[in-house]
Design brief:
The protein is mainly β. 0% of the residues lie in helices and 47% in strands. The protein has a single domain, classed as Lipocalin (Beta Barrel). The relative contact order is 0.19.
């Protein structure tokens, strides 16, 4: 995923549901994706935080752009998503 390319496999059969789909907003991914609330969250070193629908197809629900590099994996707590940037800690939540 370091190059912003995502693959998804069926856990029972191992068959690919999507193979080598590029997530255009992401560049330089070092963090692990997480899943919460029917969504998958990915972050890149370019400060992009991408929200995908948890499905076998690439469906981008939202893209949030921060002004600093993100190398750490996101963390979910309740209805909040925490992102550790190179200088700051961010909390994304619904209003």
């Amino acid at each position: 995923m370091r190059a912003g390319v995502l693959s998804c496999f069926d856990a029972k059969t191992g068959k690919p549901l999507m193979d080598a789909q590029r997530v255009e907003a992401l560049q330089g991914v070092y963090a692990s994706p997480i899943g919460a609330g029917g969504k998958v969250y990915l972050v890149g070193r370019n400060g992009a935080a991408v929200v995908l629908k948890n499905s076998g197809q690439l469906e981008v629900l939202a893209i949030n752009k921060l002004d600093e590099r993100i190398d750490a994996s996101p963390s979910a707590a309740g209805k909040e998503l925490y992102l550790r940037g190179s200088e700051s800690l961010y909390c994304l939540a619904e209003k």
